[in-house]
Write a structure and sequence with these properties.
Blueprint: H1 2-13, E1 69-72, H2 99-110, E2 136-141, E3 146-151, E4 158-162, E5 183-189, E6 192-198, E7 218-227, E8 230-238, E9 247-257
Parallel strand pairs: 4-5
Antiparallel strand pairs: 1-9, 2-3, 3-4, 5-6, 6-7, 7-8, 8-9
Amino acid sequence: MRLSILTVSLLTAGALLAQPPAAAPAKPGVAGSRTGGLGAGAAARPPSAPAPRWPDGHPMLSAAPGKLGFWNAGTGGLTGKNGMNLPTNLDIGEVPFQPWAKALYEERRRDQQKNDPHARCMPPGGPRQFHTPYGLQIYELPEMKRVLVLSGGGPRTWREIFLDGRPHPSEDDGNFVHGFLGHSVGKWEGDTLVIDTIGFNEQFWFARAGYPHTESLHLIERITRVDYNTLKYEATIDDPKAYTKPWTGGHYIYWTPDEDFEEYFCQGNNRDAEHLVGQ
């Protein structure tokens, strides 16, 4: 029965809806808004309902049965402590770059990110999927023991996370392919979905800010539905070829209720043309 409900939800979510990202509320636990964040003198948003839960007790990461909505990604990042970012984030000067990676990061900032592959409609791999504008949906398919993450922005990417206990494929296997999304396995630790991903290629930026990575990137993501309207996303970046040690950052993502994605394909309507500087 749960699978049939989710299947109907997936079909209705196939319309993948874009909306401008909301600015950050001052703290987690408040609803998303089409009109932006809490400015000076703005009224506080109403408190959130609890997170919906599966019969076994762990949180649903999608709308409750019979409801609509999506996660309004597009703001927040892995560094800095302002807005939607986590207070434990590093400041950019604290990121443990290898010298070549720091130089490349600074060059990307100097040239106004004109070489960002995402501006050319390439998939948003890793944490980029969770701060790409136009939102995302997260669907758990219990009978299939996997989670799907559907992106509203860019090329409408979908990502598969296996919860069936399988290991990562061996990189020594001649059939192993490094991709934009890597190979993801996950498990629940209490109310947190922990995702372990390897197998990335180097053809994307894993965050809008342009932090470099290599094919050695090993990503650990922790996703917690704090309440109905709030998702906490945290990622640990472990890439010894680009950084001197692992580092962690994340942000909150807020729920847009009673709406679904609109149809949007970057390839036919690129809304990131401002980053095609000098081309």
